[in-house]
Specification:
678 residues; alpha+beta; Rossmann fold; D-amino Acid Aminotransferase, Chain A, domain 1; Dna Ligase, domain 1; 17 helices; 25% helix; 32% strand; binds adenosine-5'-diphosphate; transit peptide
C-alpha cells in the first residue's frame, strides 16, 4: 500500500497556523515543503515559509483548498510524495484520500475507510455501539421524517441536542429546551447543515446538562500498534466551539484515565485506524463517560498534548505515514506538568463574536519584555505584522500554548502571555480570553461545557473600573492626543486644543459598550498639568480622590504609569476613542472623550442597520411596519457559515428591508431602514 512508501517532499494542503506548524516539523525532519494557496493567500505566511508554493485557484475555499483535483495536481507538479491535510478543508474527506491512493501519493492520515466509518456521526455511533464503547442515549436512525424526529425527541426527554449527522465544528447543532421549540430548531439546524455540509440529516441526543468535554489523543501505526497520549479537557466552549483547552484534564484519576484511554484505542482499532486521531467523550459528573465522535485528523488543540508528553505529534504522523512503527509504547509515555491553549480569533466579543477582518498593523509577542520563558510559551500563528485577515476563511489567527509545572503555574503563565500579545489593526477575542483565564471558576477548574453560559453574567458584566484604571486611561488618551498633535504636552498648544481653563482638562470615561447610552455611567477625571516639562507630573482628580501621576513611554506600546509613587508597566494605546490598557490581570477598554471641548462622542440613535460583514441574507423575520421592541430579531444573515441575527436597535418598526432572503450583501450595505419610536 502506498502509505508505507518513504517520501522526501511533503505538500501541506492547508493554510494559516496549521500549515506553518506542519512545515516546521517537516523541515526539521529534512523534508522539502510545498505549500498551496488561493489568490487571497498569495503572500500569506505559509506560502512565504514553504520551499515551494503552488496556486490552487480563487479565494473561495470551494475553488481552492477544497478542490481535490487541484491539490492532487499540485502534488504532481511539485513532486510531493505525501500530503498532510492539516485540520478542516480536506482532512476528513474520504474521496480525497481515495484520489491520493489512485495517484500513488501518501496521505498523512488514516485510510479512507476509517474516515468513512467516523465521518458520519450517526454511522459512527452505530459502529461504536458494536465495539462496546458507551454512547449518549439518543436517536441516530436514517428516517428523518419531522414527526418521527419529534417523537424521538419527546421520548428521549428534553433538553435534547440536535446535531447534523454530517456535522463538525459545532455547526448545525442546537439545544432544544422544550417540545415547543423543536420544529424551529430542526429547521434552523437543517439550514445550517445544508449550507455547511450539503446534507440535512440530523441525529438527536439526550443533552447532558453539566458534562465536561474530555478527549483522548490516540495514535496507531500501520503495523497494528495503538497507544493513547492521554486526555485534553476542552470544556470551555462557545457555541460548541473550543476556546480554551488544557491537558491533563483537572481531577482525572489514573484509573479513569486508563479506562478512557483504552476505550479510545478500542474505538480506533475497531475501524482499522492509522495515524493521529482523537476520540471525544462527554464526562458526566458521576465519572461516567460517553463517546461523542472521533476526529480522524490532527486536532487544533494537539499542542497541549505535545507540551505534557514532550512528543512532536506531527513527527509521529510523518513517521507513521512513512510506514514506521510508533516511536513509543504505552508504558514509555508519561505526563509532565500542565498545559493550556487559548485560541486567538479575529472576532469581536462585544458584537456577539462577529468575525472581524482587516490588516494586522502589529502582531507580536515580546517574551523577554514580559519575563516569559520561551521554553514554556509557544505561539502557533499563521500571520505576521502586515498580513491581511480576510473574510474567506476561519477567523482563527493563532494559538497561544503554555506549559507549567502544575496547573496554577501554567495558568499564571497563560495570563502573562495573553497580556504580552500585541495585536493591532484587527479586533480579536484576546480580552475575552483574559476574562476566561482570570475567572475564579476557571482557576478552580470548576469546568463543564456550559462554563461560558453559566458565567455569562460575570464574563460579560459591565466592567467596574478602579481609580487606577480611570487614571491610567485618561493619561494614555492624553499622551496619544499630545503625540498626534506633535507636542510633548497638550498644555503647550496654542491652537484650538488649548483649553478655556488653561491648565485643566476634563475627560469622561466609560465602558465602550455604553458609549452611546444616555446615562451617567461615566467617570470624570480632571487633569491638571504643569507647563514645566521636566516635572511631567499631573494631578488627577476623580470624585474626591486626588492622585499625582506620570506616564513614561517605554519600547513599542509599553508604558509605565506611576500613580502616587506606584509604578506599573503596561501595554497601552488609543484606537480612535477607545483607550486599551493590557496587563496580566486583563484588558481595560475605556471610551475616552474630552468634555471640556466640543462633544463629538455621541451619535444619534441609528435609523439604518448595516451589514456587519459580507454574507447572505437567510431570512426576514418581521413585516415592515410591525412594531418591535429593542433587541427583537429582525433578520438573519449568514456569514462564514454561521448565522447572525440582526436585532432592533430600539423600540420602533422596520420601515423597509433592502434585501430578500438569498441575496448577497457586502459589508456596510444598508440592510434595512429602522424607524425608532419618538
Ligand atoms: P462537532 O463535531 O460539531 O464539534 P460534537 O459532537 O463534537 O460536535 O460536540 C461538540 C460539543 O457539543 C461538545 O464538546 C459538547 O460540549 C457539546 N455536546 C455534544 N453532545 C452533547 C450532549 N449530548 N450533551 C451535552 N453536550 C453535548
Amino acid at each position: 500500500m502506498s502509505r508505507s512508501t518513504p517520501f522526501d517532499t511533503l505538500l501541506v494542503a492547508n493554510r494559516g497556523e496549521i500549515a506553518c506548524r506542519v512545515m516546521r516539523t517537516a523541515r526539521a525532519m529534512g523534508l522539502r515543503t510545498v505549500a498551496v494557496y488561493s489568490d487571497a493567500d498569495a503572500n500569506a505566511r505559509h506560502v512565504r515559509e514553504a520551499d515551494e508554493a503552488i496556486r490552487l485557484g480563487p479565494a473561495a475555499a470551494r475553488e481552492s483548498y477544497l478542490k481535490v483535483e487541484a491539490v492532487v495536481e499540485a502534488a504532481r507538479r511539485s513532486g510531493a510524495g505525501a500530503i498532510h491535510p492539516g485540520y478542516g478543508f480536506l482532512s476528513e474527506n474520504g474521496a480525497f484520500v481515495e484520489a491520493l491512493d489512485r495517484a500513488g501519493i501518501v496521505f498523512v492520515g488514516p485510510p479512507a475507510s476509517a474516515i468513512a466509518a467516523m465521518g458520519d456521526k450517526s454511522a459512527a455511533k452505530a459502529r461504536m455501539a458494536n465495539a462496546g464503547v458507551p454512547l449518549v442515549p439518543g436517536y441516530h436512525g436514517d428516517d428523518q421524517d419531522d414527526a418521527l424526529l419529534k417523537a424521538e425527541a419527546d421520548k428521549i426527554g428534553y433538553p435534547v441536542l440536535l446535531k447534523a449527522s454530517a456535522g463538525g465544528g459545532g455547526k448545525g447543532m442546537r439545544v432544544v429546551e422544550s417540545a415547543a421549540n423543536f420544529q424551529a430548531a430542526l429547521e434552523g439546524c437543517r439550514r445550517e447543515s445544508q449550507a455547511a455540509f450539503g446534507d440535512q440529516r440530523m441525529l438527536i441526543e439526550k443533552y447532558l446538562t453539566q458534562p465536561r468535554h474530555v478527549e483522548v489523543q490516540v495514535f496507531c501505526d500501520s503495523l497494528g500498534n495503538g497507544v493513547y497520549l492521554f486526555e485534553r479537557d476542552c470544556s470551555v466552549q462557545r457555541r460548541h466551539q473550543k476556546v480554551l483547552e488544557e491537558a491533563p484534564a483537572p481531577s482525572m484519576t489514573a484509573a479513569l484515565r486508563r479506562e478512557m484511554g483504552e476505550a479510545a484505542v478500542r474505538a480506533a482499532k475497531e475501524i482499522g485506524y492509522v495515524g493521529a486521531g482523537t476520540v471525544e467523550f462527554l464526562l458526566d459528573i458521576d465519572g461516567s463517560f460517553f463517546f461523542m465522535e472521533m476526529n480522524t485528523r490532527l486536532q487544533v488543540e494537539h499542542p497541549v498534548t505535545e507540551m505534557i508528553t514532550g512528543q512532536d505529534l506531527v513527527e509521529w504522523q510523518l513517521r507513521v505515514a512513512m510506514g514506521e512503527a510508533l516511536p513509543l509504547d504505552q508504558d514509555e509515555l508519561t505526563i509532565t506538568g500542565h498545559s493550556f491553549e487559548a485560541r486567538l480569533y479575529a472576532e469581536d466579543p462585544e458584537q456577539d463574536f462577529l468575525p472581524a477582518t482587516g490588516t494586522l498593523t502589529r502582531f507580536a509577542m515580546d517574551l523577554e519584555g514580559a519575563g516569559l520563558d520561551p521554553e514554556r510559551v509557544r505561539l502557533d500563528s499563521g500571520v505576521e505584522t502586515g498580513d491581511a485577515v480576510s473574510m474567506h476563511y476561519d477567523p482563527m489567527l493563532a494559538k497561544l500554548i503554555v506549559h507549567g509545572n502544575d496547573r496554577a503555574q501554567a495558568l499564571a503563565t497563560l495570563n502573562r502571555a495573553l497580556a504580552a500579545l500585541d495585536v493591532q489593526g484587527v479586533v480579536t477575542n484576546r480580552a475575552f480570553l483574559q476574562r476566561l483565564a482570570t475567572h475564579d471558576a476557571f482557576r478552580d477548574a470548576d469546568l463543564d461545557t456550559r462554563f461560558i453560559e453559566k458565567h455569562e453574567e460575570t464574563l460579560f458584566a459591565p466592567r467596574r473600573y478602579s481609580i487606577e484604571e480611570y487614571a491610567g486611561a485618561s493619561l494614555v488618551g492624553l499622551h496619544q492626543l499630545a503625540r498626534e498633535c506633535e507636542s510633548d504636552s497638550p498644555w503647550d498648544r496654542h491652537d484650538g486644543f488649548r483649553l478655556n481653563a488653561p491648565h485643566t482638562i476634563r475627560i469622561a470615561l466609560c465602558d465602550p459598550a455604553h458609549a452611546q447610552d444616555d446615562d451617567d455611567s461615566e467617570a470624570v477625571v480632571v487633569v491638571e498639568g504643569t507647563r514645566e516639562r521636566e516635572d511631567a507630573a499631573w494631578h488627577l482628580t476623580i470624585g474626591d480622590e486626588t492622585l499625582t501621576a506620570r506616564l513614561d513611554p517605554l519600547a513599542g506600546d509599553a508604558v509605565a504609569i506611576t500613580l502616587d509613587g506606584h509604578r506599573r508597566r503596561l501595554q497601552a494605546r488609543r484606537d480612535g476613542n477607545i483607550v486599551v490598557i493590557v496587563d496580566p490581570r486583563g484588558e481595560t477598554r475605556l471610551f475616552w472623550r474630552r468634555i471640556d471641548a466640543i462633544d463629538h462622542g455621541r451619535q444619534e440613535a441609528e435609523s439604518t442597520l448595516t451589514a456587519p460583514m459580507h454574507g447572505t441574507v437567510v431570512a426576514l423575520l418581521v413585516e415592515p411596519g410591525a412594531r418591535v421592541e429593542k433587541g427583537m430579531p429582525l433578520m438573519v444573515m449568514e456569514a462564514m457559515k454561521m448565522e447572525h441575527t440582526m436585532t432592533a436597535p430600539a423600540d420602533g418598526h422596520v420601515a423597509s428591508f433592502h434585501f430578500q432572503a438569498g441575496d448577497t450583501v457586502g459589508q456596510g450595505d444598508v440592510l434595512l431602514e429602522f424607524a425608532p419610536d419618538e
